[in-house]
Every structure is written in structure tokens, then in C-alpha cells.
């Protein structure tokens, strides 16, 4: 009888849950000595906003190079805040697209298109006042 039950090496089961990493929680307050506290948490996804902040910090030489996370204590709070941001993005984006459409219906011209586009960009920028980064695994 051939041994079919033998497991092949290198076929480890992948967990669906994101890997927790060590880093600085974006909600946890700093320690008494002013240094950021290192905790285990869900890694913050590097998106365009985080990249822009890092770029500015590099230029101003204030980058600390800390890995950003959301600790388990703040996971629920973060989920709510991120959900709120995603909703406002959809709502503001929807309003912007709708207004753009109305402008184009009123007069189909390049001017209307540009005005609508500016309005859409303005509304999306406004939505980013509530920006909350995405954390992997939450
Ligand atoms: Zn925390």
C-alpha cells in the first residue's frame, strides 16, 4: 500500500487572519517618558496617504521609522472609524459624480466637465478630513 497520507514539506496551512506584527499603535498614547510604546497589532496598510506622510517626514527629517499598527484593544474602535471614512468617501464621491452629471446635462461642454471634476476632487478631499488608514486583518 502506498503511503498517500504523507504530507509534503512546504505546504503549511495559511491562516486567513492577518499576521500580527510588532509596532506602534496609532491610538495608544505614548509612554510617560514620551517614547512610543511598542505593541503587537494589525499592520496598517501603506496607502497613498501614508506614503505622502512618510515622504513629508523624510523631507523634514522627522521620520521615526516606526511600523504602524492597531492593537487588539483598539481594533473595534478602528473598525468603526474606518467604516465611517469609507462611507463618507462613497457618499461624497457619489454626490460629486451626481453633480458632475447634472452640470454635463445642463451644458455638454469642456467647461462643465472641468467644473464637475473640480467639484468631485474638492468633495473627495473633504471626505479625507476624516481619513482613517486601513489595517490589514480588521
Ligand atoms: Zn492601541
Report what the structure shows:
- With 138 residues, the chain is mainly alpha-helical.
- Helices cover 45% and strands 11% of the residues.
- It is built from three helices and three strands; from the N terminus they run ββαβαα.
- Strands 1, 2 and 3 form a three-stranded mixed β-sheet that branches.
- The longest helix is centred in the middle third of the chain and has 32 residues, at 75-106.
- The radius of gyration is 22 Å and the shape is elongated.
- 12% of the residues are buried.
- The structure holds zinc ion.
- The site of zinc ion (ZN) has 6 residues, from loops.
Specify the structural class.
mainly alpha
Strand content: 5-15%
Mean pLDDT: 88
Helix % is 40-55%
- The tally of domains stands at 1
Largest pleated sheet: 3 strands, mixed
Rg over CA atoms: 22 Å
Rough shape? elongated
State the distance separating the first and last CA atoms.
Answer: 46 Å
Ligands, deduplicated:
zinc ion
Features:
138 residues, mainly alpha, three-stranded mixed sheet, elongated, binds zinc ion
